[in-house]
Specification:
Chain C: Keywords: 4Fe-4S, Iron, Iron-sulfur, Metal-binding, NAD, Quinone. The structure holds four protein chains of four kinds. Chain A is built from twelve helices and no strands. In chain A, α8 runs antiparallel to α10 and α10 crosses α11. Chain B contains four helices and seven strands. Chain B has a single domain, classed as 2-Layer Sandwich (Beta Polymerase, domain 2). Chain B is an alpha/beta fold. Classes of the chains: A mainly alpha, B alpha/beta, C alpha/beta, D alpha+beta. Chains in contact: A-C, A-D, B-C, B-D, C-D. At the B-D interface, β3, β4 and α3 of B face α1, α8, β6, β7 and β8 of D.
């Protein structure tokens, strides 16, 4: 019983921490992009104010499916937090967490898809069809990488993969398999929907895509979902390729480094069209991932 | 590469212009009877005057006539031709130039909306710029916009004194 | 939509949050919209005050009426305004929204904006400069913070007045509620 | 294509991807536009009617407000129309100053449209830099004319006031800064960016025959290898005293039109330098008597000049009175915005509709008037 309460308390702590860190990262990203564009940009704590304002506004619902979609998106993402080791914090670390995380991420985006279909706006349905095709695009190379890692270290739990890279920083996967780390970085940008792979929320084509009909608290929930997704994907990348960390601060610092790199990389590229994006994923990243996998197997 | 004079000879020979005038360097204006304007358009188009800038309409209220002006330009002679013709104001009917220049359909639609000129053969003449407009076509000279505005909208009264009086 | 905007302390916090982060609807209704890009981008940068563009009326709080309004735009502006969510504000640019401005005798533009939509403030200038726009928006933020910007309440309270004026100019207007 | 699978979208007036207050209603199937219709008229203020109610001199304040992106083009065409009907001579220095203003307006127009095109495909950094560069040119305008966008500076008979020498030096410094710092940045981030090239290449193609048939001029023609430029074909102001080339490309797609915008700017810089170098002295305004009593004999004229999007013309008629009898505005993007949308938009992908609209430079107030 005590262990249950401890777990629940620990889980709440992780959720609040992930949301706060995610929003902080979004604020930092806006600041970096602003600096690149020779302007000041909003204060770093601006996303917190946005969320507070959004929860204060009225919002129009488009029926039960629309509400449930937003809740499912947020719920799916929070559920994924159970299985990601954030530095030393670790809730569940049994075998198979890698695959479970991939599945739960898909649940979150399907929830958002259901919500947007409920909203009935054609631009939203175009946006969500783009998001799902893009997911198809980056899942392929990502799964190849994961399988080759699992095969290499004979364990499919993230904690196990992280432990395998312990010791000096030399045997991080980043240095053991640099090509795979590069491909994973590109896939990470695709997963987070940052430029040049943000065709699904293209404001100038389909008016900010899936979230076109959600104002007020729905947009607030989707903003929270986005911030937790950022933390999850960054944590996944750091665990698999930068050897995790023993305490939370160096873990967050590593995540910050990867995040800044992804933002800078993204701010100078226009966005792909959706089929060019998927073609790109299936051409270079998939090829390198398969080569790396063969290298590991042989 | 014709200059203005050779162009005028060509026009005098082939078309029956009522009046021809060289307005300025590289600018010629030709007045024609309504019935042989469309034929003149296709004739000039075959003689390197392929560019139709626009079709303008001028409402001569006192003389009871609409004047349609077709502005052509040649990429060889670099000369501007303004083909003018006058049609009766009351029936205000004219043939369409859609077959010669498909884009003329929209210039005619614009003139129809603002002057009420009917273009036979152009079936796409419904409203484009204005939205459910029930009054006189606004660009006609007998439509007074100030009087229309005074009875359509009230003015903001700055403590008693109206904006326009 | 609940009409009883009770003035509790929770409302003050929301007003404070609202003035810190305003989403401006990306809708260039008139000629004044040419001065919005310079205000949004590097040189004058309105985003340092937390004001950023929003693509759809659902996510927007601020509706800028940048200059004159033709009747065709007015109809779409009313639909847009009614799609926006409760704490929403309208700011008019230049004299065209006050008394018709330079197009006072045009048959196709409306003469007074605040007969059709509740306007919080007007920014002077026949196309106000970016500095004037920023100054106006900063003043708007102060008004929001101490609760004076209650245009949406005025719209709710005398809905009949606004609807009559709109129908007088536009004929029939689709109503959502 | 039965109707059931087609959905209709209002790529409407309230949309970041659309240039200005203008709507395109298109039906699409899958990801391709099947039919499209222009939904224009949102910016109609009845300019031509208002001009018939105002004196000649009062219209100079009304005229720049027709097209927001290029107010000086309207002022110039209005002044040229007045001078053409009234056979008024403009002092040579005024011609030079007018050409300088027009070329500065061309650079700010092009840099703004390159920024707009880049924002259309998601490259916001270039939009920020482009608008920032444009602001420096607006500062020069502010020094010469006192206003940022609407200058009311070019008047019938000349220009409102002379330009001092240190303003000329400022213009020259700005030209150097543009050429050595601003444009190279732009070159690296946009024109050497493989994504941008992939997004623009082969999109929104308008062939030479289609353009000539439709009456579209400017970059649309020059992107098909046709070196047509009214500054060369019908030289006005001081363009017969300067040498410059007319950049052309071959395959008439969005990528070429945007490269033309870049090359046009470089040519404009060259023109401005030549103009400032050998600008003659003398008055800048012929004396036409009291402004309120401007009067020109009965007559009409069609005048046109080369705006950044092509031929921009007025047909002006005067009946000898104190007010113009009729002014007809022919915007550069009129054929494209109304006829071109219906004829050439179907077939493009949804993602390329903003690319189509912005790269062709559709400026709605021109055909709404």
């Amino acid at each position: 019983m005590i262990d249950l309460i401890y777990k629940i308390g620990h889980f709440l702590l992780i959720t609040v921490f992930a949301t706060a860190l995610g929003l902080l990262f979004m604020g930092i990203a806006r600041k970096i992009i602003a600096r690149i564009q020779k302007r000041y940009g909003p204060p770093v704590y601006q996303p917190y104010l946005d969320v507070l304002k959004l929860f204060g506004k009225d919002a129009i619902t488009h029926g039960f499916i629309f509400d449930f979609g937003a809740v499912m998106a947020l719920g799916g993402v929070i559920a994924t937090l159970f299985f990601i080791p954030l530095g030393s914090w670790q809730l569940y670390s049994m075998e198979g967490t890698v695959l479970l995380v991939i599945y739960l991420l898909a649940v979150a985006s399907l929830g958002m898809a259901m919500g947007t279909v409920g909203s009935g706006n054609p631009q939203a349905s175009i946006g969500i069809s783009r998001a799902l095709t893009q997911m198809l695009g980056y899942e392929l190379p990502f799964l190849v990488i994961l399988f080759s890692l699992i095969f290499r270290y004979q364990t499919s739990s993230i904690w196990g993969l992280m432990q395998a890279q312990a010791g000096s920083f030399l045997n991080w996967n980043l240095f053991a398999y640099p090509m795979m780390a590069l491909v994973a970085f590109v896939v990470l940008i695709g997963m987070m929907g940052k430029k040049p792979f943000d065709a699904m929320i293209a404001p100038s084509e389909i008016g900010s895509g899936p979230v076109v009909e959600s104002g007020g608290k729905y947009l607030g929930m989707l903003l929270l979902q986005k911030s937790i997704t950022i933390i999850i994907e960054l944590a996944l990348y750091v665990n698999l390729f930068l050897g995790g960390a023993d305490n939370i601060f160096s873990f967050s610092f590593k995540m910050l480094i990867v995040w800044i790199l992804a933002t800078m990389f993204g701010s100078l590229f226009p966005r792909f069209r959706i089929e060019d994006g998927v073609k790109f994923f299936w051409k270079w990243p998939l090829g390198i991932a398969i080569l790396q996998a063969l290298y590991i197997i042989i | 590469m014709r200059n203005e004079k050779e162009l005028l000879e060509l026009i005098n020979v082939h078309l029956e212009p009522q009046a021809v005038e060289i307005k300025r360097e590289q600018n010629v204006s030709v007045e024609l009877a309504p019935k042989n304007l469309i034929q003149a358009l296709s004739f000039l188009k075959s003689h390197s005057y392929q560019h139709l800038s626009t079709i303008s309409c001028v409402d001569w209220l006192e003389e009871g006539a609409f004047e349609l002006v077709y502005h052509l330009f040649s990429y060889d002679d670099y000369i501007n031709i303004s083909l003018k013709t006058r049609i009766k104001r009351e029936p205000g009917i004219f043939q369409t130039a859609k077959e010669i220049w498909p884009v003329a359909e929209f210039y005619e639609r614009d003139i129809h909306e603002f002057f009420g000129v009917e273009f036979k053969g152009n079936d796409n003449l419904e409203e484009m710029i204005l939205e459910n407009w029930q009054h006189l076509p606004p660009m006609r000279k007998d439509f007074d916009t100030r009087e229309f505005v005074n009875d359509q909208y009230e003015w903001r009264d700055y403590n008693g004194q109206k904006h326009t009086d | 939509m609940n009409n009883n905007f009770v003035k509790g302390s929770w409302q003050e916090i929301l007003d404070w949050a609202q003035n810190k982060s305003i989403n401006m609807l990306h809708y260039c209704t008139g000629c004044g919209a040419i001065e919005l890009p310079p205000t949004m981008t590097s040189r004058y940068d309105m985003s340092r005050f937390g004001i950023g563009p929003a693509a759809t009326p659902r996510q927007a709080d601020l509706l800028l009426v940048t200059g004159y309004l033709s009747t065709k735009t007015l109809r779409r502006l009313i639909y847009t305004y009614e799609q926006m969510q409760a704490p929403k504000f309208v700011v008019g640019f230049g004299s065209c929204t006050i008394n018709g401005g330079m197009y006072w005798d045009s048959y196709n533009t409306i003469k007074q904006l605040d007969k059709y939509l509740p306007v919080e403030m007007y920014i002077a200038g026949c196309m106000p400069r970016p500095e004037a726009i920023l100054d106006g928006l900063l003043k708007l933020k102060k008004m929001i913070n101490n609760g004076e910007a209650d245009g949406y309440q005025r719209y709710q309270d005398n809905l009949e007045f606004y609807h009559q004026n709109q129908e007088a100019v536009l004929g029939e207007v689709q109503r959502t509620q | 294509m039965d109707k059931s699978t087609q959905t209709e979208i209002f790529f409407g007036p309230n949309h970041p991807g659309v240039p200005g207050n203008y709507g395109i209603i298109y039906e699409f199937e899958g990801d391709t536009v099947t039919s499209a219709k222009a939904n224009a008229g949102h910016l109609h203020r009845g300019f031509e009617k208002l001009m018939e109610e105002r004196l000649w001199i009062k219209n100079t304040a009304l005229v720049p407000r027709i097209c927001v992106e290029e107010p000086d083009i309207n002022e110039m065409v209005y002044a040229m129309g007045f001078e053409a009907i009234g056979e008024i001579e403009v002092p040579r220095r005024a011609d030079y100053i007018r050409s300088i203003i027009l070329e500065l307006a061309r650079i700010q127009g092009h840099i703004f449209s390159i920024g707009g095109n880049a924002a259309g495909i998601g490259q916001y950094t270039v939009m920020h830099w482009g608008t920032l560069t444009r602001d420096y040119i607006l500062d020069i305008f502010e020094e010469i004319t006192g206003a940022r966008v609407y200058h009311i500076y070019i008047r019938p008979g000349g220009v409102r006031q002379d330009i001092e020498d240190e303003t000329f030096d400022k213009i020259l410094d700005l030209m150097d800064e543009l050429e050595n710092e601003r444009f190279p940045d732009l070159e690296k981030t946009l024109f050497e960016n493989p994504n941008a090239q992939k997004r623009w290449q082969g999109k929104a193609v308008i062939t030479k025959e289609e353009a000539v048939e439709m009456g579209a001029t400017g970059p649309v023609l020059r992107a098909n290898g046709v070196p047509h430029d009214l500054r060369k074909m019908m030289p006005y102001a001081a363009y017969d005293d300067v040498e410059f080339e007319v950049p052309t490309y071959e395959n008439g797609d969005a990528w070429d039109r945007i490269k033309i915008a870049r090359d046009d700017m470089l040519q404009s810089i060259k023109i401005i330098r030549q103009l400032i170098q050998n600008i003659p002295d003398g008055p800048v305004q012929t004396d036409l008597g009291n402004g309120l009593k401007y009067k020109i004999p009965k007559g009409d004229a069609y005048v046109k000049i080369e705006s950044k999007r092509g031929e921009y013309g007025y047909y002006m008629v005067s009946d000898g009175g104190l007010k113009p009898y009729r002014v007809h505005v022919r915007g550069a993007s009129t054929p494209l915005g109304l006829y071109g949308v219906r004829e050439f938009l179907p077939g493009t992908r949804i993602a390329d509709v903003p690319v189509w609209a912005k790269s062709l430079g559709i400026c709605p107030p021109e055909f709404d008037r």
